[in-house]
């Protein structure tokens, strides 16, 4: 039986290495810098034109728009920025011509121009994206509507309704509106029996599970009728349509319905869907200073679109003449160099995290477990394990982050990191890892997270403070004490905040061997983060002079179709 206290091994030979990155440290690098060997050329051309694709008379907004991490928009500026305490609305006609053999995307709505990215800070709109899943009732290849918003602090939410637009150039009507004073507290349940069929607040439940429970009381209840009730409850903000990408929905009861306020509604060809802001998001400072059309800043693919009969905040926009809106990269030819798994991290002569030029970090992508372009940038530290006191500290700056992005810094086992992984969700956290993770939580932002993972199935991920890409330098300390708690304790100091995570006896019994310290991209499908570090100190059994030196290298790969090879 494992004792309550486990004494650490002799640690006299553990050294503290300090690295300020004033020069290239020549750490080991594996797939950390990736380029395309055949980067494609793109021609983007959208904005106002005296054309008449929608039959409303000469003058409309549209053209060809590309998905790309190169931001682009055509938009009306507001002299006074809006927040989520203000009402706003827009409507019009739209037609799209969607290619069959590539991805595509387009945003329309309200946004802040200063912080672009996926998704744009201080934004609230609708986007068109291609189906990557065969959804019942829709033909393959049509364009699907999504709704999302993001506050000025990078938190937000998304709704994936069952709305799609044909990509054949046919003309359709749309309306988008935000009503800040509509409250869920004023809503009534479409069927008062519905809440009791949810096992608990915050737990996701499949439509079929709700149906089985419902039919015990009302055997004639059908799935079609139940979905009508659930959709109405969702539009009233009483339940959350948490997941809708495949053929099924996952639902949960909204938490704090009495505090939910601010309704977002989208109407397409007369069919209306709604969802609400998450509690407290209305109070987050946000600067929505544009209405218009912007590109989906992810992967690649083009879409041709045309918008006419435009109304913005109850004002008809005269498109018979050029409205002279703001433009960014909307009429350019450029080389597309970015794609999923295009990591670009390691040593760089930049100055995000420290006082002087020179640091490590950059862009980290989440890769699917089958993607060979997973890697690391790290230093050989000899060998440490969970019997050793382990500590590292330094400065960090979180510069940019896309939804579902994450990265890791800490101690790991090189062989385990590069080993074959089977199973979509079996790649992160890595086996035999101890350290920190910057990880996404869409509703609230990111977290700085303490991780201990002897093996993934017994790993712990203790979320610490909310951490958004605010581009502010912070100091941090990660301290693992094998003699603290029952089986060892991690203590993290992050700025002014301190949090901890206790290891379990099972974790100590299984153990872990670490032979590298450094930066890793996660083996879990997702987006990207840009994070930088400087002035690091870390525990090592090797002195800096004992280790092998490496030159930085770049991996070149063919540009993947749609910008992403593995889904």
Mean pLDDT: 92
Work out the count of structural domains. Answer: 2
Through-space gap between termini: 44 Å
The CATH class name of the largest domain reads: Mainly Beta
The total beta strand count reads 37
Low-confidence stretches: 1-8
Helix content: under 10%
Based on helices, strands and strand pairing, what is the structural class?
mainly beta
CATH architecture tag of the largest domain:
Sandwich
Radius of gyration: 26 Å
Label this structure with key terms:
567 residues, mainly beta, Jelly Rolls, 2 domains, 9-stranded antiparallel beta sheet, 8-stranded antiparallel beta sheet, 4 helices, 37 strands, 45% strand
Can you walk through the features of this model?
The chain contains 4 helices and 37 strands. With 567 residues, the chain is mainly β. It folds into 2 domains: 15-33 and 343-562, Jelly Rolls (Sandwich), CATH 2.60.120; 41-328, Jelly Rolls (Sandwich). Strands 4, 5, 7, 13, 17, 18, 20, 21 and 23 form a 9-stranded antiparallel β-sheet that branches. Strands 1, 24, 25, 27, 32, 33, 34 and 36 form an 8-stranded antiparallel β-sheet that branches. Strands 6, 8, 9, 10, 11, 12, 19 and 22 form an 8-stranded antiparallel β-sheet that branches. The radius of gyration is 26 Å and the shape is globular. It starts with 14 loop residues before the first strand and ends in a 10-residue tail after the last strand.
């Amino acid at each position: 039986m494992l004792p309550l206290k486990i004494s650490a091994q002799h640690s006299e030979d553990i050294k503290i290495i300090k690295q300020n990155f004033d020069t290239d440290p020549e750490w080991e690098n594996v797939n950390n810098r990736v380029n395309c060997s055949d980067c494609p050329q793109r021609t983007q051309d959208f904005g106002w034109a005296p054309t008449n694709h929608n039959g409303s008379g000469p003058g409309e907004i549209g053209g060809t728009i590309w998905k790309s991490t190169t931001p682009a928009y055509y938009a009306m500026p507001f002299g006074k920025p809006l927040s989520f305490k203000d009402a706003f609305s827009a409507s019009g006609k739209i037609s799209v011509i969607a290619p069959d053999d590539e991805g595509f995307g387009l945003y329309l709505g309200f946004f802040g121009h200063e912080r672009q990215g996926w998704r744009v800070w201080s934004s609230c709109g609708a986007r068109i994206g291609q189906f990557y899943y065969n959804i019942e009732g829709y033909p393959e290849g049509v364009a699907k509507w999504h709704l999302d918003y993001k506050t000025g602090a990078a938190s937000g939410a998304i709704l994936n309704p069952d709305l799609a637009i044909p990509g054949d150039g046919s003309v359709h009507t749309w309306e988008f509106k935000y009503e800040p004073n509509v409250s869920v507290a004023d809503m009534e349940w479409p069927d008062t029996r519905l809440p009791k069929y949810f096992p608990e607040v915050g737990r996701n439940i499949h439509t079929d599970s709700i149906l089985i429970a419902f039919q015990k009381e009302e055997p004639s209840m059908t799935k079609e009728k139940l979905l009508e009730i659930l959709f109405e409850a969702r539009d009233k903000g009483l339940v959350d349509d948490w997941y809708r990408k495949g053929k099924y929905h996952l639902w949960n009861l909204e938490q704090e319905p009495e505090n939910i306020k601010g309704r977002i509604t989208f109407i397409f060809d007369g069919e209306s869907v709604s969802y609400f802001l998450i509690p407290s998001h209305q109070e987050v400072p946000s600067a929505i200073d544009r209405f218009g059309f912007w590109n989906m800043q992810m992967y690649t693919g083009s879409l041709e679109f045309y918008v006419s009969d435009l109304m913005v905040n109850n004002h008809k926009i005269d498109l018979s003449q050029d409205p002279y809106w703001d433009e960014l990269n909307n009429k350019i030819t450029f080389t597309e160099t970015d794609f999923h798994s295009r990591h670009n991290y390691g040593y760089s002569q930049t100055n995000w995290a420290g006082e002087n030029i020179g640091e490590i970090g950059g862009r980290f992508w989440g890769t699917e477990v089958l993607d060979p372009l997973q890697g690391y940038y790290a230093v050989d530290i000899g060998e440490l394990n969970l019997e050793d006191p382990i500590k590292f500290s330094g400065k960090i700056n979180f510069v940019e982050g896309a939804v579902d992005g994450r990265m890791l810094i800490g101690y790991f086992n090189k062989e385990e990191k590069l080993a074959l992984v089977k199973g979509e969700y079996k790649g992160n956290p890595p086996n035999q890892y101890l350290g920190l993770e910057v990880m996404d939580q869409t509703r609230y932002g990111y977290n700085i997270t303490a991780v201990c993972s002897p093996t993934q199935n017994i790993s712990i991920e203790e979320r610490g403070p909310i951490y958004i890409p605010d581009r502010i330098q912070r100091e941090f300390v990660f301290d693992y004490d094998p003699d603290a708690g029952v089986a060892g304790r991690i203590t993290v100091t992050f700025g002014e905040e301190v949090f901890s995570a206790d290891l379990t006896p099972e974790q100590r019994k299984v153990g872990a061997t670490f032979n590298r310290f450094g930066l890793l991209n996660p083996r879990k499908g997702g987006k990207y983060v840009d994070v930088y570090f400087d002035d690091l100190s870390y525990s090592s059994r090797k002195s800096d002079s004992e280790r092998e030196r490496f030159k930085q290298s770049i991996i070149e790969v063919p540009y993947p179709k749609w910008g992403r090879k593995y889904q």
